[in-house]
Amino acid sequence: MSVKIKLMRLGKIRTPHFRIVIADSRSARNSKAIEEIGRYSPASEPSLIEVNSERVQYWLGVGAQPTEAVTALLKITGDYQKANGLPGSEGTLKSQPVRVDKRVAYEAAVKEAMNEPADGATTLKKKAAEKLAAKAAPVVEETPVAEAAPVAEAAPVVEQTPAAPEEVSQVEVVAEASAEETPQA
């Protein structure tokens, strides 16, 4: 039985993910594997390549043959060079950026939101913004004294509402009539 190190495809139609597996060479691509030794995700930037180096070294040592795609991945990680005694065993693998934990990101967002101004609304109304701008930079206008005209005072407006004596009397009559009709215990 010949053993191959090959890729097992997972994922949706346009978002492939692969497992690096040890399987019989005669088996189908996604059939049952002997052992899973890593994973590969080409969709992310840089590509995610995780390989269990000890197991790769073991399987290459006992004669497992990697496919062309797996050979390229093992050269990137440096495991192929280690197994064959070639220079460049450190590989050219680019590490993934460190992901921030969701809880830490949430707490940072809450802390940032707490630093907002405590003066009520974050956007001021138009008049309040104008007052604030006037306090910040007072504008001095020079007006000639000779041209200043006195401002005429406006007469106060008094609103008078006419009382409707008929409506008031009807309400009082209805209230008195209902008080007389209700029996008291």
Keywords:
5 strands; 185 residues; alpha+beta; 5-stranded mixed sheet; 6 helices
Q: How does this structure look, described?
A:
The protein is 36% helix and 17% strand. The chain has 185 residues and is of the alpha+beta class. The mean pLDDT is 77. The longest helix is centred in the C-terminal third of the chain and has 17 residues, at 165-181. A five-stranded mixed beta sheet has the order 4-3-2-1-5.
Outline the secondary-structure elements.
Layout: E1 3-11, E2 16-24, E3 35-41, E4 48-51, H1 53-61, E5 65-66, H2 68-77, H3 79-84, H4 102-114, H5 126-136, H6 165-181
| N-C termini distance | 106 Å
What's the story with the biggest beta sheet?
A: 5 strands, mixed
State the helix count: 6
> How much is the average pLDDT?
77
Shape: elongated
> Low-confidence segments, ≥5 residues, pLDDT <50?
none
Strand order of the largest sheet: 4-3-2-1-5
Strand and helix order: EEEEHEHHHHH
Q: How many strands? A: 5
Computed structural class:
alpha+beta
Query: What's the Cα radius of gyration?
Result: 42 Å
Q: What portion of residues is helical?
A: 25-40%
Strand content: 15-25%
Summary?
The chain is an alpha+beta fold and 185 residues long.
